[in-house]
Amino acid sequence: MRDDSRLPSAPGFWRSPLRGPWFTSVLGLVLLVGITVLFVTGLLSYAAYNPDLASVNDKTPDKGILGFYLFAWPTNPYWLYRLNQGVHVTLGITLIPVLLAKLWSVVPRLFALPPARSLAHALERVSLLLLVGGALFEFVTGVLNVQLEYVFPGSFYPLHFYGAWVFFAAFTAHAALKTPAAVRNLRGLRKEREPVAETEPAAEPETLASPRPDTPTVSRRGALAFVGGGSLLLFLTTAGQSADGLLRRTALLAPRGGPDPGTGPNGFQINKTARYAGIRTAETSREAWRLVVTGRTGTVRLGRDDLLRLPLHSASLPIACVEGWSTSDQWWRGVRLLDLAALVGHDDPPDVFVESLQRRGAFRHAALRANQVADPRSLLALYVNGEELSPDHGHPARVIVPAAPGVLNTKWVARMTFGDL
Ligand SMILES: Nc1nc2c(c(=O)[nH]1)N[C@H]1C(S)=C(S)[C@@H](COP(=O)(O)O)O[C@H]1N2
Ligand SMILES: [Mo]
To answer: InterPro entries, per this entry (predicted)?
Structure first.
C-alpha cells in the first residue's frame, strides 16, 4: 500500500515539497485566532436577533443548552451590531483562502489508510471529520446566505448555529491537541521559511511532509504570500459593504443590499422592495393606513395624522443586516416606541411584537425586547433624512432600534402588540 503512489491513500502520491509542519502550523495559528473571533461574533449575532423572545423566525428559539448564553442584547453603543456583523462576515470571507490552504496542506492525512490504527486514532479521525465537515458547512452556508439570501429550507439561523457548535467543539479539541506543536514548529523550523532556491522538503516524513517530494517551484514564504494575497483581495472587495459613497463601490463581492437605491434622502441600501413584499399603495395611503396598537389597556387605532400629533423625536442610526452590509447613520424621525407603549397603558415598557402589512415571506414580523422599547432612540420612524420614508424603506412607518440587526427593523408596520413575550 505504502509504495503504490498512484493512490491518494499512499503517502508518496502527494508530491508537494511545501507540505510540512511549518506551513500547516502558520495557517493553523491564523485560523486559531480567526475562527475564535468568528465563533464569538457569530454567537453574539445570534443573541442580537432575539431568538428566545418569540418563535417567529426560529422554530427552536431557546436552542436548549446551547442557548445558555442568550442575553438581552444592549442598545449601546448604537453601532454595536454594525461592527459585530461587519467583522463576522468580512473576516469569514477573508479567511476562505487560509482555510483552503490549510486543508490542502493536510489533505494526505485525510486519505491515509488504514482508517484507524487504534481507538484513539479512530476517535481522532472522527473528530477530523467533524472538523473539516463543520468548517466547510459553516463557510458554505455563511457565503450562500450572504450572496443569495436565505436559500435554505427552513431558516438559515438554526443551520448555521447548530453547525457552529459542532464545528467549534471539534475545533477546540483539535486546537488543544495541536497548538503546542504548532507553536514549537514555528520556533524550531525557521529554515523552512527560506527562498525557493533553498527550500528543502520538510524534515520529518511522518509529519505531513511528502516522502518523495518534487523539486519546489515556489518557496513556502511565496506560497503563504499567495494565500495572504488571496485573503487581502477578498478583504478589499468585501469590506466596503459597511462603507458609503465611493468606498462602497469596492464591495464587489458583497451584495448591494438589493436594488440600486438611487440618490436623495432615501438613497441608501434597500433590502426587500415594497413590490417584492407585495405592499400595495392602496393600503399605505393616508386614508387607508391605520396602525393598530394593543397593550394592557386595550387597542388603539392610529392614522398617520394621529401619529403626527404625538411628540416626534429624532435618532441617527444605521441599518446593519445580518448579511454584513450596513448603511452609515441615517437621520430618522418618528414616534418613540416607549410613547406608543404608554398610549396603551405601559409606563414601564414591556416587549413588543411588531407585524407588517406584508402577508408572506420572511421578516414580516419581529419581536423587540423591553430594553429596546425603552431606549428613547427606538422609533416608529415616519421620516428619514428630512423626507417621508420611501415605499421601499417602509412607508408609511417602520421600526428603527439602536444596535439591533436590520431584520428587527420591520418595514410597513401595521400592528404592534405590547406585553411580555
Ligand atoms: N416587512 C419587512 N420588514 C423588513 C424586512 C422585510 O423583508 N420585510 N427586511 C428586514 C431586513 S433583513 C433588513 S436588513 C432591513 C433593511 O432595511 P432597508 O431595506 O430599509 O435598508 O429591513 C428589515 N425589515
Ligand atoms: Mo437583513
So the answer is: Mopterin_OxRdtase_euk, OxRdtase_Mopterin-bd_dom, OxRdtase_Mopterin-bd_sf
325 CA distance to ligand 1 middle (Å): 12
H or E element, residue 127? helix 119-148
| 388 Cα: distance to centroid of ligand 1 (angstroms) | 17
Q: Which of 41, 60, 70, 81 is nearest to 162 (CA)?
A: 60
Report pLDDT for 246. 76
Mean pLDDT, all residues of the chain = 90
Give percent above pLDDT 90 in the chain.
Answer: 68
Q: Domain limits of the chain?
A: 11-250, 274-418
User: Mean of the pLDDT values across residues 247-259?
Assistant: 74
Distance CA 47, CA 67 (A): 9
Model-level pTM? 0.93
Q: Which helix (H) or strand (E) holds 306?
A: helix 304-309
Most informative mutation of 248, 322, 363 for ligand 1 (most atoms within 8 A of CB): 363
Pocket of ligand 1 (CB under 6 A): 257, 269-272, 277, 319, 321, 356, 358, 363-364, 393, 406-407, 409-412
Q: Which CATH superfamily is domain 274-418 in?
A: Oxidoreductase, molybdopterin-binding domain (3.90.420.10)
Identity of the amino acid at 379: L
Residue 176's CB: how many other CB atoms inside 10 A? Answer: 9
